[in-house]
Specification:
Length: about 90
């Protein structure tokens, strides 16, 4: 997507970079193809009532999301496997 900032989670300060590019605002929508431990970090950037879509599961570890209400205030996590959407059967 030309003209949009690129942030890599390989950078130690990637969360601060996201906050900077979002002018300090929490994000309403996020898309995560990686999952794993990164999912919990992403929740810290999501606005109350925001939506995060998990797909792909590129990480070797499962997505772990703390379900305490203080961690997911109105968030809407959703997920799918692209292989299933493409008609390739179970992931």
């Amino acid at each position: 997507m030309p003209g949009l900032p690129v942030v890599t989670t390989e950078d130690a300060d990637w969360q601060n970079q996201v906050r900077k590019f979002a002018d300090g605002e929490a994000l309403d929508v996020m898309v995560d193809p990686v999952g794993g431990e990164l999912a919990t970090d992403l929740l810290g950037l999501l606005a109350d009532g925001g939506t995060i879509v998990f797909y792909g599961g590129l990480a070797d570890e499962p997505i772990t999301v703390p379900l305490a209400p203080r961690r997911l205030p109105g968030h809407h996590p959703a997920g799918c496997f692209l292989r299933r959407l493409a008609g390739g059967g179970d992931a």
